Amino acid sequence: MSAPSPKDGSAGDGVRDTLLGPDEGLFETMRAEGGRVPLLDRHLARMRRSAEALGLDAVPGAGALGAEVAAALAGAGAGPHRVRLTALASGAVRVEVVPLDPDPDPTAITLPGWWDPGAAIREHKTTRYAHFRRAVEEARARGAGHALLLDAAGRPGEAATASLVLVVAGRAVTPPVQGILAGVARGVLVEAGLVGEELVGADALAEAEEVVAVNALRGAMPVLVVDGRPVGDARPGPVAARLRRALAEAA
After folding, report:
1. Average pLDDT, the chain
2. 107-250 is classed in which CATH architecture?
3. Which residues lie below 8 Å from residue 228, measured CB to CB, with a gap of 6+?
4. In the prediction, which pLDDT does 15 show?
5. Which of 9, 130, 166, 217 could tie 208 with a disulfide, CB 3.0–4.6 Å?
């Protein structure tokens, strides 16, 4: 499938050049257990940084947003739940709480050309999300759990709904934040020194000992098959287990 060309920012665009309408804004997808979101402070800090970068002055501060999340979770039960916090450019705030669905299948397809390192707007989690939604739909249509977005040269950037960690020659690395989202779980792992930031080549996926999709909603998810080809011995590896433990401890 060829890469789409959504008008959500491209090489050379500054994020403030991409104006969001009053019914557009930012969102965070979070995991709640026991009536609380363990990494809430990190999610709200990311939303605040994006609001400032995009000039969304009407987005409430972290205190008000946190109160909205707490109110939505009151009486929701132990969980786990998927919590979606949306803050629009108009200042409106919505919080949706639903039971967490099962993890995706540990398989992936690659989508060359779907990662544009120059698309600065995609470094922010905006409601202008059709690009990623189409990637997920493409993966599902081809029987895979994940869509891995590659640049025009075939270098891996991120998964459609998660950051991407590759284990190459025993080292766990993730691409730098250039046209990709600075994932909350990714930040935990980079700050802990468990994952380094490095732009890898087009052959990295074929050579990887482990491929792991990482997000705050589900933790570290081993990807065992990419484009029908097994990753390593097609079993969850020790790095994925280490990353999962680290994220559980951070929560």
Report:
1. 93
2. Alpha-Beta Barrel (3.20)
3. none
4. 54
5. 166
Q: What residues are paired with 230 via a beta bridge?
A: 225
Give the per-residue SS3 of the chain. CCCCCCCCCCCCCCHHHCCCCCCCEEEEEEEEECCECCCHHHHHHHHHHHHHHCCCCCCCCHHHHHHHHHHHHCCCCCCCEEEEEEEECCCCEEEEEEECCCCCCCEEEEECCCCCCCCHHHHCCECCCHHHHHHHHHHHHCCCCEEEEECCCCCEEEECCEEEEEEECCEEEECCCCCCCCCHHHHHHHHCCCCEECCCCCCHHHHCCEEEEEECCCEEEEECEECCEECCCCCCCHHHHHHHHHHHHHC
How long, in residues, is the chain? 251
What is the CATH class of 18-99? alpha beta
Please report, for the chain, the start and end positions of each structural domain, with discontinuous segments joined by +.
Answer: 18-99, 107-250
Residue 56 has what pLDDT?
Answer: 96
Tens of pLDDT along 14-33? Answer: 555 567 889 999 999 999 99
The per-residue pLDDT for range 242-251, each reduced to its tens digit, is 999 999 999 8
Q: Distance (Å, rounded) from C-alpha 56 to C-alpha 60?
A: 9
